[in-house]
Amino acid sequence: MKSLEPPSCNMPAPALVFIGRNGHGQWVAQEQNGLYGGLFVSRAEAMKYALFENGHHPETIVELSRTIELDTDGRLAPVGLLFSRGRRPVA
Question: Out of the domains of life, which is the source (predicted)?
Answer without folding.
Answer: Bacteria
